[in-house]
Amino acid sequence: MLYQLYEIQRAMVEPFADFAQAAAKLYSNPHSLLSQGPMSQRMAAGFDLFYRLGKDYEKPEFNLHSVDVGGVDVTIRERVEVDKPFCELRRFKRFSDDTDTLQTMLSQPVVLIVAPLSGHYATLLRDTVQSMLGDHKVYITDWKNARLVPLADGEFHLDDYVNYVQEFIRYLQGKYGQCHVVSVCQPTVPVLAAVSLMASRGETPPLSMTMMGGPIDARRSPTSVNNLAQNRSFEWFENNVIYRVPEGYPGVGRRVYPGFLQYSGFVAMNPDRHAKSHYDYFKDLIKGDDASAEHHRKFYDEYNAVLDMDADYYLETIATVFQDYKLVHGTWEVRSPEGQAELVRPQDIKGSALLTVEGELDDISGSGQTRAAHDLCTGIAAEQRKHLEVPGAGHYGIFSGRRWREIVYPQVREFISAHQPESATAASAAGHTSSLSDDAPSATEQPRKRGAKVQAG
């Protein structure tokens, strides 16, 4: 019933938000008579703030159209490589007509970025993707909003998440010969499980695993997020945060943890900070500080866009990661697509380097939670493992913003490069070259002008 009430409330607020947007333009447009009054800037700022508080935030776009590769501007085309019921494997295909740049891109490592499925969309990692595109072939998991997935597409469990990751790793290995994996926050746990299961079966693991700000061992330095999961019973979560998708969506009837409830929880963690941020936005509009106002808009366009999570997946994550600690206790069994239960054994991983990254001030995954992966992956040689703690960085700072670009990414790049053997580089280039025919444009799309850009990585 709560979901239906939320939809009614949203429908009621929408026309007022649209009115506020129009009014803000009337009071700010220099060609409008209303903009000439002594209070026009304040009126415009107030209506604009109301609009942003009341509007519906849709899934953002990555909007990555070009990237610098060795001083050359390279065009990017985004496309879906693998489409699963609950996730798309999205690729950022790069094009260049510069021969040297093309050869450079052909030899660059292949990276699978596993984005979190914890409320926000994969576009939260836009800065991560943009940085990595200059030095890598980049793929990312783009998780779907569960309310848009029809019941006919089946259930989605934590086991399915792990199986998806394995499938994507195998896909890239089959295409390029090898790959590296980067996981941010929530997926550190299922990614470690996926690679562990592959190693236990004798499959080739990724060349490296980079795990950033994730709850490998949620017992260490527990945060408010950990405390909530630990202090509430499994039944409490099932009875208080799980609802069925109402009419009007493809996933009608599916049990989900609604995005609007997740958003309420995000804001409740730091209400004063968000209130101050919106008041500062109001003042920036009055002062005419367009740069600061636009920065606020970009952040909240991303932060306010949330998705529904399938109930089975969410509840199993709570139990497995935050209540029973099955990964660190060695009791986690994952069911394969064939229905076979397999024990997760991180100690079986060999031949895959491990880098863990934590923020000093992370209030989502506390200090030591990600570093715990080193204690579990005893089969990885000490010289193949590294830990990085970022001074002054919060949770988002380790994968987005200045600290990510200036401190974290250079070390991630060097770590991946150090564990990219010549054989893997050659296989990556060969795999990409063989894919050119698959990616070739149709007859109607063939380049007709001299100097048309050639696709690379």
UniProtKB/TrEMBL annotation:
Which stretches make up the PHB de-polymerase C-terminal domain?
213-419
Question: Locations of Low complexity compositional bias?
Answer: 423-437
What InterPro entries does its record include? AB_hydrolase_fold (IPR029058), PHA/PHB_synthase (IPR051321), PHB_depo_C (IPR009656), PHB_depoly_PhaZ (IPR010915)
Specify where the region named Disordered lies, as residue ranges: 420-457
What Pfam families does the entry give? PHB_depo_C
Quote the NCBIfam families the UniProt record gives: PHB_depoly_PhaZ (TIGR01849)
Report what the protein is called: Polyhydroxyalkanoate depolymerase, intracellular
Report the source organism: Delftia acidovorans (strain DSM 14801 / SPH-1)
